[in-house]
Design goal:
The complex is a heterodimer of chains A (413) and B (337). Chain A has 413 residues and is α/β, with parallel strands linked by helices. Chain A has two domains: 140 residues, HypD, alpha/beta domain 1 (Rossmann fold, 3-Layer(aba) Sandwich); 169 residues, Rossmann fold (3-Layer(aba) Sandwich), CATH 3.40.50.11740. In chain A, 33% of the residues lie in helices and 15% in strands. Chain A has 16 helices and 13 strands. Chain A has a five-stranded parallel beta sheet with strand order 2-1-7-8-9. Chain A has a four-stranded parallel beta sheet with strand order 4-3-5-6, sandwiched between helices. A two-stranded antiparallel ribbon of chain A has the order 10-11. Chain B is α+β, with helices and mostly antiparallel strands. Chain B has two domains: 143 residues, 60s Ribosomal Protein L30, Chain: A, CATH 3.30.1330.10; 166 residues, PurM-like C-terminal domain (Phosphoribosyl-aminoimidazole Synthetase, Chain A, domain 2). The longest helix of chain B is centred in the middle third of the chain and has 18 residues. Chain B is globular, with a radius of gyration of 21 Å. The chains are: A alpha/beta (413), B alpha+beta (337). At the A-B interface, helix 1, helix 2, helix 16 and strand 12 of A face strand 11, strand 12 and strand 13 of B.
Chain lengths: 413, 337
């Protein structure tokens, strides 16, 4: 972003002073108000509706938690794209984890987020409708499933249970797979295996503009993932006419990113702006990238409900293949489900994940599908768009209030 | 007693070991005449007023955590349920479910902690029971307590008195207990700065009611935290709750850990915090009374009751934007990234 008198010196750009590293500095109401004014002015200059898209579940949570959409003019719509690794995880990999959990001598170690996400295998009986098996169902049926907070927890489990194969469900984007790579380089227990469910986001992000239903003029790029990859991996997007800005996760970070996108669109000069300079550098994190490349090689992955995307995932390299759950138990990975059945009947997660439909435009949302009784992955995962919209009441838009003294307000600055 | 270092099944059999345990450990620790009589029921003086009765079962892992233990929790939990109804707590009973193998010196520590909390709350532990379950069938120790208090004439505190315009206050930082216990469970607090807020609120409530006699509603913010209470207050009612994000008191250590784990401190448990709804004219006096009490130093006005929207709990940010604060839906689990 270009600093202006309104946003103050070093507003949300490259400030590296001690105080600027505190999140509070990027929640400052004066700074946020200034950025919101700037966005309104840019949108006014633009004079037409624009759609922007973020592709990060943490961005959606920040939008919900701080009700930041309230601060945007009506002409600026901020959509949620495929930013939730749990939501895009191939249902067939969930099936594999479910089968592994039920195998004697195998224990599945998974992040808590993944436990309730249904795969494609039908769950007999229990609930009416098209209900699929999750790891929770596998556990209820006697399968061995443990919740872990990191791959290191999984390695610890493997050390404690040498008699079992401990299969770590390595779901996540490039941010998460860095930890898996780091662990595998350090000679973990031989009985630790990895379900290769890690996704590499740049190829999918580059593909977005060509997908049916894509309608954004600009992309807010995810700060954490870009801190690993650097900004270079996105250089094709501006060539295709898509404005790009890397954004952090505090209110001022996100609004600075939105302002940068509007500026590009107004000028008609798409480029990649870095509105998260305190964390993200153009070249990324060379050490993390080197470790990743040592352990993993690019592979085609199915993005649930979207497409098979070349180079959008990570397979273990031959030197590490002995830790592959697929190599050890190939029969568990023999799922026959195809694209037409990967989400339950009636579930619109595929469109929600692409930003082609907002959650409240799904007939199940908030009625049959709630966090207590989720149908699709977007309502299960904490990173899921439907869940965030449900928790924060996002579909209500600006919420007007009336006080006992007769005061009113419309929830905007 | 001294013959054993740990709880055996016989300690719960009703025989000699049970009698020794009660006499040498509980009667000794609780120093209460009605209990020392060892009768089947405590026969008590009635201090006058309407009776308030409540019961609460307590389990927490680990049973000893920064800022307290299950004994203090078992007293404070029940006392606070009485206090927020405007009742003055008088008597408690305590039933212990012990797992075979639980250490007797640990049990003595729990009992001593209960006695200290009871003294702070000005209540007497007058009755008790002990059962022992086989090793592997319990989590060391569970304690169920019941409490009796009296509501002075003229006091009327409860959800029926809530109405738009009411001002909402809390007596301090939110989510401390839930986050501290989670940190202790998973070894997530290397600097050791997090503390549970577990405390009996008897004297704090009395100070509040003296300063703000028009107080309409009190609720202790236990499981589900402020989010659960805010939603319960408005469910099906013709008014809404608005909380001001930037006025909610939060401990910096709690903020740090909860952001790292992706857990909202507004949904985390407290064991020494309450929400009060007072008439607008008494808000300043209520705040001053809370801040003047050792358990209310960080008290704050955090919100108000709205005419519209009805039935919803909202959070209003420092930017004037608003979001819904949903009822907690599940055990809070750390997010993956």
């Amino acid at each position: 972003m270009t600093p202006t008198d309104e946003s103050g010196p070093q507003a949300a750009g490259s400030g590296r002073s001690a105080s600027a590293t505190r999140p509070d500095a990027y929640r400052d109401p004066v700074l946020v108000a200034a950025l919101a004014r700037r966005i309104r002015r840019l949108a006014g200059d633009l004079g037409r509706p624009v759609k922007l898209m973020h592709i990060c579940g943490t961005h959606e949570h920040a939008l919900g938690r701080f009700a930041l959409r309230d601060l945007l003019p009506d002409d600026v719509q901020l959509l949620a794209g495929p930013g939730c690794p749990v939501c895009v995880c191939d249902g067939r990999l969930i099936d594999a984890a479910v089968r592994l959990a039920s195998e004697p001598g195998v224990m599945v170690a998974s992040f808590g987020d993944m436990l309730a996400v249904p795969g494609t295998l039908p769950l007999a009986g229990e609930r009416p409708g098209d209900v699929r098996m999750s790891l929770l169902d596998a556990r209820a049926g006697g399968g061995e499933v443990r919740t872990v907070m990191s791959v290191f927890d999984a390695a610890r489990l493997a050390a404690e249970h040498p008699e079992r194969q401990v299969a770590f469900f390595s779901v996540g984007f490039e941010t998460t797979v860095v930890a898996t790579a780091a662990l595998l380089r350090r000679h973990p227990p031989e009985n630790l295996s990895v379900i290769e469910a890690n996704y590499y986001t740049p190829p999918a992000t580059r593909l977005l503009p060509s997908l049916p239903g894509f309608q954004a003029d600009g992309l807010l790029l995810p700060g954490h993932a870009t801190a690993v990859t650097g900004t270079g991996v996105y250089r094709e997007l501006p060539r295709d006419g898509i404005a790009c800005a890397v954004a952090g996760f505090e209110p001022a970070d996100m609004l600075a990113g939105v302002a940068a996108l509007l500026e590009q669109i107004l000028e008609g000069r798409p480029r990649i702006d870095n509105a998260y300079g305190r964390v993200v550098s153009p070249e990324g994190n060379p050490r993390a990238l080197a470790e990743l490349a040592e352990v993993f090689e690019p592979a085609t992955r199915r993005w649930r409900g979207i497409a098979d995307i070349p180079d959008s995932g990570f397979d273990l390299r031959p030197a590490f293949k002995r830790h592959s759950a697929r190599e050890r138990s190939p029969h568990a990975f023999a799922s026959v489900a195809d694209a037409s059945t990967e989400h339950p009947a009636g579930c619109r997660c595929a469109e929600v994940t692409l930003g082609a439909r907002t959650p409240d435009a799904c007939p199940l949302f908030g009625r049959r599908c709630t966090p207590d009784n989720p149908f699709g992955p977007c309502m299960v995962s904490h990173e899921g768009t439907c869940r965030a919209w449900y928790l924060y009441g996002t579909a209500r838009g600006r919420i007007p209030v009336r006080t006992a003294e007769g005061g009113t307000g419309h929830g905007a600055l | 007693m001294a013959r054993y270092e740990t709880i055996r099944l016989a300690h719960g059999s009703g025989g000699r070991l049970t009698a020794e345990l009660v006499r040498d450990l509980f009667v000794e620790a609780f120093a209460s005449e009605p209990l020392a009589a060892l009768t089947d029921a405590a026969v008590l003086e009635n201090p006058g007023g309407r009776l308030a009765l409540t019961t609460d079962a307590h389990s927490v892992t680990p049973w000893r955590f920064p800022g307290g233990d299950i004994g203090r929790l078992a007293v404070a939990g029940t006392v606070n349920d009485l206090a927020v109804m405007g009742a003055r707590p008088h008597y408690l009973s305590a039933a212990f479910l012990l797992e075979e193998g639980f250490r007797l010196d640990d049990l003595a520590e729990v009992a001593a902690s209960m006695k200290r909390a009871a003294d702070e709350a000005d209540v007497t532990i007058v009755a008790g029971d002990t059962k022992v379950v086989e090793r592997g069938k319990g989590d060391g120790i569970y304690i169920a307590t019941a409490g009796v208090g009296t509501v002075p004439d003229g006091r009327d505190i409860g959800p029926h008195r809530l109405e738009p315009g009411g001002v909402l206050l809390v007596n301090g930082t939110l989510g401390d207990h839930g986050i501290a216990v989670m940190a202790a469970r998973d070894g997530l607090d290397p600097s050791g700065s997090l503390r549970s807020d577990v405390a009996p609120l008897t004297s704090l409530v009395e100070a509040l009611l003296a300063a703000a006699p028009g107080t309409r509603f009190l609720r202790d913010l236990t499981r589900g935290g402020l989010a659960a209470v805010a939603n319960e207050m408005v469910a099906g009612r013709p008014f809404g709750v608005r909380l001001f994000d930037d006025r909610l008191p939060l401990d910096p250590g709690v903020v740090e850990l909860s952001e790292m784990l992706g857990i909202d401190p507004l949904l985390a448990a407290n064991e020494g915090k309450l929400l009060a709804a007072v008439p607008p004219g008494e808000a300043d006096a209520a705040l001053a009374a809370l801040r003047g009490h050792p358990l209310g130093r960080a008290a704050a006005v955090v919100g108000d009751l709205l005419v519209e929207p009805q039935g919803l709990a909202l959070v209003e940010t420092a930017y004037g934007s608003r979001r819904v604060l949903e009822m907690p839906i599940e055990e809070q689990l750390p997010r993956i990234c």
